[in-house]
Amino acid sequence: MTVEFLRTLLGWSVLINWGILLFWFVAFYFLRNSMHKLHGKLFKISRKQLGAIHYLAMALYKLAIILFFLVPYLVLRFLV
Length: 80
What we know:
It is a single chain. The protein has one domain. By secondary structure, the chain is mainly α. It starts with a helix and ends with a helix. The chain has three helices and no strands.
């Protein structure tokens, strides 16, 4: 595995994961009521709790993308 291959892999991973995060945000924004109907029945949570859980999960996912994909990509891009 070459450095160039790893850099390319990490770059594509960043883009794909940001796309997933963007899709999740847009889906949650437009389908919030449907999601609350489903999750409210299953877990007995309020709309406010559902929003807090989703936004916290999105923040953690974004942090993981930055930590595990973007930072290694930038290191390989500019320091190697």
